[in-house]
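From: lab user (bench 3)
To: helpdesk
Subject: output format question, protein + L-homoserine

Hello, I'm new to running complex predictions and I'm not sure whether the block I got back is the full result or only part of it. Here's what I submitted:
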Amino acid sequence: MSVVTVEGQKPLKVAVLGCGVVGSQVVRLLDEQAGDIAARVGAPVEIAGVAVRRLDAPRDVDVPSDLLTTDALGLVSRDDVDLVVEVIGGIEPARSLILAALENGASVVTANKALLAEDGPTLYEAAEKAGRDLYFEAAVAGAIPILRPLRESLAGDKVTRVLGIVNGTTNYILDKMDTQGAGFEEALEEAQALGYAEADPTADVEGFDAAAKAAILASLAFHSRVTAADVHREGISDVTSGDVRSATDMGSVVKLLAIAELVSTGSTTGGGPAEPGVSVRVHPAMIPRTHPLASVREAFNAVFVESEAAGQLMFYGPGAGGAPTASAVLGDLVTVARNHRQGTRGVGESAYADRAVLPMGETRTRYHVAIDVDDRAGVLAAVATAFATHGVSIQTVRQEGRGDDAQLVVVSHEATDAQLSATVAELRDMDIVHDVTSVMRVEGTDE
Ligand code: HSE
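Helpdesk reply: Thanks, we reran it on our side. This is the complete output you should expect:
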């Protein structure tokens, strides 16, 4: 490890918890960039120790053996530790270690989206009580600076919607289905062979990873507490080649979106105007190919933010991987180290707006529905009646003949999700309907 002296400044000591894909890159960069980091912080930042599960595990970086320890709690409790980087992931022991670190007077940088989405308030309150920083830029969309822009750069604006592609694995799979005509299973196998998808791909494919990130984005964008349990979640394992072709036919592409938006709840307080709530959801959706998010290919991430004054902003880049994620961790580390030196803190939790989270059934969306039907008089009218019965207005209908049958592709105007799913349920029960072959929400249009 190189030694850096910034004249007269006592080194800040950092404990690194975890030395896996991200942790090893944090350790490497802390060593390689030591001089620049010291100059930027105004004091050297030195590793006090690296907590690992096994001392003899193979790792991507050489860590001096006297820095390695299996006693993570002992490490974060040391008097000389000023800063703690948590890159273990998962709920426990990460939560106990972060709480112990804060109680011990250290500021914390974490990449732990699952913990923040499940129990963020406990951590924020502990940081507040300790008067220390809790930063977590790396928890959402890897290297992409998105949390700091929401927390700081846009703090004087009013964010109205956040649309994110925040899971690289699912974006890779959907991109292969779109560009190579691959089926879901084939594209998943390719993602696994390339190391994007885990052997058990559930967290990515079923939207759990994106839902945790959606909760964090929504909390910051709307100054409210939103947890993973508040997020409506649907994954991509039911997306078919037919859905992808249907999207292509209407100039769209299928993406797994994390969506957080301000919505009217209809409820009023004290007879005043209705307080906006938030809708937070993760599901596959068709977006027009002209939308900036449609150009996000392969395993890249992007977050599209709409705000009243700034208008539309897009943040794009690598959303995973050791070095990209370590870049975000180190950015936070430099910030909290500067704050620590100056005896100050950065922004803490902002949840003053306390907005209600709207149930999915009340969220207004648009649907694309492809239906195989008999090709005879009265069928189109009957299908239109099913939409009308549930108060859903049709925007476009396209019909393609298929011998004695036809396929109808209906795109609705906005209606509540409950109205739309009731319509689809009725369509599925109708004798003239052979099959409802594709149902997908439509996002990113002007309506
Ligand atoms: N597994 C995630 C992805 C990265 O595929 O984007 C970590 O959140």
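A quick orientation on your result: The radius of gyration is 25 Å. Let us know if anything else is unclear.
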